[in-house]
Amino acid sequence: MCGLTGWLDWDTDLRHAARTVREMTATLACRGPDAESVWLSRHLALGHRRLSVIDLDGGVQPLADAEVPQAVLAYNGELYNYRELRRELEGYGHRFRTDSDTEVVLRSHLQWGAAAPERFNGIFAYAVWDTRGEELLLVRDHLGIKPLYWHPHRSGVLFGSEPKALLANPLFPAELDATGVAELFALPAAPTAGHGLFRGLNEVRPGHLLRITRGATTEVRYWKLESAVHTDSPAETRAHVRELLADAVERQLLSDVPLCTLLSGGVDSSAITALAAIARERNGQGKITSFSVDFPGSADRTPDAWRTSLDAPYVQAAAEHIGTLHTSVLIPDDDLLLARDAVLRARDRPGWGEMDASLHLLFREVRHRSTVALSGEAADEIFGGYPYFHDAAALASGTFPWLHGRSTPAELLRPEVRAEVRPEEYTAEAYRRSIAEVPVLAGESAADARVREVFHLALTRWLPPLLDRVDRVSMSVGLEVRVPFCDHRLVEYLWNVPWALKAPEGRAKGLLRDAVRDLLPPQVTDRPKSGYPSTPAIRYTEVLTERAHALLADPQAPVFDLVDRALVRQLLAEGKPLPSPRTAPNPVGGLDHLVQVDEWLRAYRVGLR
User: Which residues have CB under 8 Å from 378's CB, separation 6+?
Assistant: First the structure.
């Protein structure tokens, strides 16, 4: 896995811009610790940092097809079907110089042009430059697993895997406008697809590509969900889900470096681990390595609606049943506090506080032994595992169901800021646009149509920031995380499976549980959903409270250019929690958000517009 960046400028000779391009590229060193390279031409400059996973010696980038190239590629990702595509391309006369999937991507574009990504199975974000027609394509995978940002400037565009790469170029200042404030405070859990928070920053949307020429920038959608009647029987549906998931896992075991799984003891990660273990045994590769996370004192924590049970007993049961080489990573409180700055720099924006910090520390430990990890991310979105899928009031709320009955940090905005941002209107309009994108199935009942809408919201609004979080935090330590549940073939199939088959007898993720029941111990297969663990530490809350009081005493604290200082002081004095950006109940979430927004405004020197 890698990091890429670039600069297109129709009015500037970028052959003389090597220093700036190298500075942009250097910001992505964590994403690619193994190699760095830049490629310069008159109007386009590319930078690349490489994490070597496949063809360790041959996959150098940016990659050109010849000494006088027709096309040049900077690529971040993995193609899980690259061997099949390579054979097909060889049939068309292509001759390969490397064994890498990177060259398959490049030659696919030489053969099929902008239609190439329609043939890909994988995780990817890349830039390909047609030197003949002076056309730049920016391409992102089907579900948005790999990030790609872009910023239009007066005479071209800047782009990169992370905002920090663009911010290293003087053409892109760090600024926050009313739209960014609305995203940060009103929709922090599920920001608008394509919006990059900073003023003028965009994301290439999942399943889309941008075609950029001297005269125009055009967005093209190469993949979308299509609604159709599901005709498979329950037994056929279970069998096909199992087949698709097993194939996705086996494809994603492809690696020339050490690989492991992330095992939480839930059915999602346990199914991935079990299928990986079976595939490795069949291929004579030995036992799979697995990792989990835990905190001191977690055994004394009282379960709640989000965190229904402790992971440890289920992790142990799954690891023993599957036969993994397992390690539990224990994360002390003080380590969480020390990791906050690293996580902020990794994400380039305020995130989920201690939950991001613990994920960072877990990934850092995993990276000592593995370069690639398989995760159970996205099962809840495609099978309907979240509580809001089963909450009649949330389904009928007329807004994003995860916002039902919850407050957001927008309640803390200063009156004049609130009047400009209009968070309620902004949220309502975002919801309206999201619902308008849902592909309707004619003749579907009102109840089923509503569940279809919620699935679409989960896939297009809820899932992308989760994938971004995993990518940015993992790549900050040079770890590649793969997500088999995001295989677009599985997502396409499940999109049209009726709710009654996905949740038979009302059982959350019953379809998945039944499809993998023979692989796992019963207590793991039937374990109710339990969210990613947050620390039970009192110390973490105490330190954040101290920092919040320090901000209140600082007349120059930039967060209070946006937030009502008197309201925060009142809530803290009354011992009330601040409105949290997280949908999971967490008394420290609001404090985390307040402090982190201030840290971000300072660290990135964000100007307010």
Answer: 143, 463, 466, 467, 483, 485, 486
Q: Measured between alpha carbons, how far is 356 from 353 in angstroms, rounded to an integer?
A: 5
**30 in active site:** no
Give the per-residue pLDDT at 255.
Answer: 85
pTM, 2 dp: 0.94
CA distance 65 to 350: 40
d(CA 264, CA 258): 20
> Closest by alpha carbon to 6, among 161, 215, 205, 147?
161
Dihedral over Cα of 280, 285, 287, 292: its sign: negative
**Backbone phi and psi for residue 474, each to the nearest 5 degrees, phi listed first:** -70, -45
CA distances from 182 to 82, 175, 403, 566, 585 (A): 41, 14, 15, 21, 22
Cis-peptide, bond into residue 62, ω within 30° of zero:
yes
Token reading at 68: 């006088």
The helix-helix angle for 333-347 and 538-553 (nearest 10°) equals 60
Per DSSP, 561 falls in state: G
Specify whether the CB–CB gap between 49 and 36 falls below 8 A: yes
Q: How far apart are CA 561 and CA 72, in angstroms?
A: 45
Structure tokens at 304: 């709640």
Report the b/e string of 388-423 with b at 16+ CB within 10 A: bbeeeebbebebbbbbbeeebbbbbbbeebbeebeb
pLDDT tens-digit series, residues 455-473: 999 999 999 999 999 999 9
Tokens encoding 422: 């209009």
> Which residue is it, tokens 């992370």?
162
| CB-CB contact of 483 with 470 (8 Å) | yes
Specify the range with the lowest mean pLDDT, choosing from 185-199, 314-328, 492-506.
Answer: 185-199
What are the tokens at 453?
């809408």
Structure tokens at 468: 């971004």
Catalytic residue among 2, 30, 260, 486: 2
Which pLDDT score is estimated for 604? Answer: 97
Residue carrying structure tokens 């949740």: 503
Per residue in 389-433, pLDDT tens? Answer: 999 999 999 999 999 988 999 999 999 999 999 999 999 999 999
Whole-number Å distance between alpha carbons of 33 and 285: 27
Give, in order, the Cα–Cα distances in Å from 603 to each of 194, 473, 550, 596.
24, 18, 17, 10
512 closest CA partner among 387, 391, 381, 402: 381
Residue range 161-219, pLDDT digits in tens: 999 999 999 999 999 999 999 999 999 888 888 889 999 999 999 999 999 999 899 99
> What whole-number distance in Å separates Cα of residue 335 and Cα of residue 313?
24
Over the stretch 511-555, which tens digit does the pLDDT of each residue have? 999 999 999 999 999 999 877 766 656 788 889 999 999 999 999
DSSP-derived letter for residue 496 is: T
In one letter, which amino acid is 536?
P
Q: What local confidence, expressed as pLDDT, does residue 59 receive?
A: 58
